[in-house]
Write a structure and sequence with these properties.
Number of domains: 1
Strand content: 15-25%
CATH topology: Spore Coat Polysaccharide Biosynthesis Protein SpsA, Chain A
Number of helices: 7
CATH class: Alpha Beta
Bound molecules: cytidine-5'-triphosphate, magnesium ion
Shape: globular
CATH superfamily: Spore Coat Polysaccharide Biosynthesis Protein SpsA, Chain A
Helix content: 25-40%
CATH architecture: Alpha-Beta Complex
Length: about 220
């Protein structure tokens, strides 16, 4: 039973404001993409990797994989207009006999192997998908413009991260829908009535969005 990983790295990184796509912004002297790629390559849970790269950045992604000796990378595809469309493009390169697929944001460079293990395990217990989530510390309100409409019950909420794991056939089906507005893959599976489990996430999986986030993740990098 082979496990495939899809690495979504095709975003522009507009909020980071670098002179290059976010996956190639510098983190600890290397492209940000190197961090998650190296961790997937080194994980005993992962057999093959497909990278969705920004247009014009496919070649640098291939070269980076070669430099890292990332032999699990089976292909690099050109991403789409949205995250889910990039995942859809990458899924086209995932083998038909792949039982399970793990989808991860390159924007979350620090990928602990324990989390990979945590999201994969429940797939053999009847779940269609598994996401890592963390409790919220802030109070969350629904707003319309500047007016507060409702205060949500914090105990019922989780901040959800990647990697997210799915039965391959379920994710493929879900990606046939109109996916442009989906901010994660699990929401597509949920929308079709799929059973998605939440397991404990990890603070280190912070998504690099702004320059401040990049500085935080850089400080968390283990000295090499
Ligand atoms: N992503 C992707 N293809 C897209 C858009 C996003 O593969 N068309 C990926 C990004 O590379 C990132 C992840 O999805 O790893 C989460 O997206 P986000 O953090 O929003 O990254 P960007 O879209 O690059 O950033 P921004 O929204 O600031 O432009
Ligand atoms: Mg984005």
């Amino acid at each position: 039973m082979s496990v495939w990983a899809v690495l979504a790295a095709a975003g522009r990184g507009e909020r980071l404001g670098s002179d290059r796509p976010k996956a190639f912004a510098r983190l600890g002297g290397r492209p940000l993409l190197a961090e998650s790629l190296e961790r997937l390559e080194g994980s005993d849970w992962i057999d093959f990797i497909v990278i969705a790269a920004p247009a014009e950045w496919e070649e640098p992604a291939i070269l980076l994989a070669e430099e890292l000796g990332a032999g699990k990378v089976s292909s690099v595809v050109t991403g789409g207009a949205s995250r889910s469309e990039s995942v859809r493009e990458a899924m086209a390169e995932v083998a038909d006999d792949a039982a399970v697929v793990l989808v991860h944001d390159a924007a979350r460079p620090l990928l602990p192997d324990e989390v990979i293990e945590r999201v994969l395990a429940p797939l053999s217990e009847g779940w269609d998908g598994v996401v890592p989530g963390l409790p919220l510390s802030d109070t969350v309100k629904r707003v319309e413009g500047d007016r507060v409409v409702e205060t949500l019950s914090r105990g019922e909420l989780a901040a959800v991260q990647t990697p997210q794991a799915f039965l391959t056939s379920i994710l493929r089906e879900a990606l046939r829908d109109d996916v442009a507005d989906a901010s994660d893959c699990a929401s597509l599976v949920e929308a079709r009535g799929g059973r998605v489990k939440v397991v404990e996430g990890d603070r280190r999986l912070l998504k690099v969005t702004s320059p401040e986030d990049l500085a935080v993740v850089e400080a968390w990098l283990e000295p090499s």
